[in-house]
Amino acid sequence: MYTFNFEPVLAGFDKLLIGALVTVQLSCAAMVIGLIVSILCAAGKTSRVAPLRWVIDAYIEIIRNTPFLVQIFFIFFGLPALGIRLSPNSAALVALVVNFGAYGTEIIRAGIESIQKGQIEAGTALGLSKLKIFRYIIMKPALRTVYPALTSQFIYLMLTSSVVSAISADDLAAAGNDLQSATFASFEVYIVITAMYLVMSIGFSAVFSMIEKVAFRYPLSR
Amino acid sequence: MLIRPFGWNEFLIIVMAAQWTIALSAIAFAGGGVGGLLIALARVSDARWPRLLATGFIRIFQGTPLLMQLFLVFFGMNILGFAINPWIAAAVALTLHASAFLGEIWRGCIEAIPPGQREAATALGLRYVNRMRYIILPQASRIAVAPTVGFLVQLIKGTSLAAIIGFTELTRQGQIINNATFSPFMVFGTVAAVYFVLCWPLSLLARRMEVKFSRSTTR
């Protein structure tokens, strides 16, 4: 009969907490930068320059049809061949941004497509500049429409970020790997870490629904 | 040091490893199909306990990383007294993972059927099993095809994580070849290309079915 031994996990719990903090930082940074990438790519997809649209389409299809693990291996091990050498943590951030950017672009594009043409025409008639039309008439309501999809994509990003432990970044899963190889209490370590991820994803969805209530309080008019 | 160049042979070894990726995906998809149907049915059941259990199962598997699920099954097998076997651990973990995701997808499809259908079936005297079998599921399965194919892409990509627990599929084979040839750019480029060839047609198919379906249902 196996006896569970959680003592070594509790002894190393401070290291796990630091790892969890890195996971949160990494995911939040990737989300903010990835969101900017998504908005730029989604705007680029409405461009009249065909090659720009093709490049963005190729980027989205390649990222969405290959595993994140292979993407991070390619960035961390493959790019040094081109002279781009990244530390594990920066490679992790770049990989997460590139990955989130592809999914985010599709989500934001769907939001942009939900804006009726008449709205944009009304903006033009009011003499708003192109940038103002994009910002106030297209992006603001589009972001509201796709907010639920974006937040669940973010939680998915946070869970996916555990894969960066494969290149020994300093995230929660990697902290778990270190603790596991030091204590050999494998199952105990990973059950605690899994619970920590669960708490983080529940926490983030609570925070997101609070943000939704505050940020999108203004009434929806049709 | 014995470093061999990345040539035609290495390329073929990587391409051949895709069979293990396909096998693992097929097993997880079949197992997840059965599990997912049970989860979806429990999730919409009239009884309270199956509903709560299914909801908890889905929440846990959708709220934790697939990598941790793999580790827990891998090390958990040891605790239960089985010999550690990456093949079985990966198949079991991915099956559970697929069950949760397919269960949630299919629940949505079942709930998308207008309540009048269910009420009419009940009025005709059909109980839960017959109501599901003859009225609800045939209609829900039409809606379910596109998102299910979409999930299959996610599952194929997910099998790459089995490499981390040491199951030699496509990604692991890439790592092994990379250790021998030390040309990561070529190796992981090839690995990514093989995944792309597997996943892209399915993504296109899912998208096409989605468009076709939304056209046939909009009036």
UniProtKB/TrEMBL annotation, chain A:
The entry's cellular-component GO terms read: ATP-binding cassette (ABC) transporter complex
Name the GO terms of the biological process aspect. Answer: amino acid transport
Protein's membrane topology: Multi-pass membrane protein
Q: Among its keywords, does the record have RNA-binding?
A: no
Q: Where is the ABC transmembrane type-1 domain?
A: 20-208
Q: Which GO terms describe its molecular function?
A: transmembrane transporter activity
Q: Where are the transmembrane segments?
A: 16-41, 62-84, 90-108, 145-169, 189-211
Q: Does the keyword Transferase apply?
A: no
Coarse class of the primary localization is: membrane
Q: Which UniProt keywords apply?
A: Cell membrane, Membrane, Transmembrane, Transmembrane helix, Transport
User: Which subcellular locations apply to this protein?
Assistant: Cell inner membrane; Cell membrane
NCBIfam families assigned: HEQRo_perm_3TM (TIGR01726)
By sequence similarity, the record places it as follows: Belongs to the binding-protein-dependent transport system permease family. HisMQ subfamily.
Q: Which PANTHER family match?
A: ABC TRANSPORTER PERMEASE PROTEIN, MEMBRANE COMPONENT OF AMINO ACID ABC TRANSPORTER
What is the recorded name of this protein?
Amino acid ABC transporter permease
TrEMBL record, chain B:
* GO CC annotation: ATP-binding cassette (ABC) transporter complex
Question: Cross-referenced CDD domains, in alphabetical order?
Answer: TM_PBP2
Its main subcellular localisation, reduced to a broad class, is membrane
Q: Which GO terms describe its molecular function?
A: transmembrane transporter activity
Hydrolase among keywords: no
Q: Name one GO biological process term.
A: amino acid transport
Decide whether keyword Membrane is in the record. yes
Residue ranges crossing the lipid bilayer per the database entry: 12-40, 52-75, 87-106, 143-165, 185-206
ABC transmembrane type-1 domain residues are 18-206
Q: Where in the cell is it found?
A: Cell inner membrane; Cell membrane
Q: Which domain of life is it from?
A: Bacteria
Q: Which UniProt keywords apply?
A: Cell membrane, Membrane, Transmembrane, Transmembrane helix, Transport
Membrane topology term: Multi-pass membrane protein
Under the heading Pfam families, the entry gives: BPD_transp_1
Q: Which family does it belong to?
A: Belongs to the binding-protein-dependent transport system permease family. HisMQ subfamily.
Q: What is this protein called?
A: Amino acid ABC transporter permease
**What organism does the record attribute this protein to?**
Aliirhizobium smilacinae
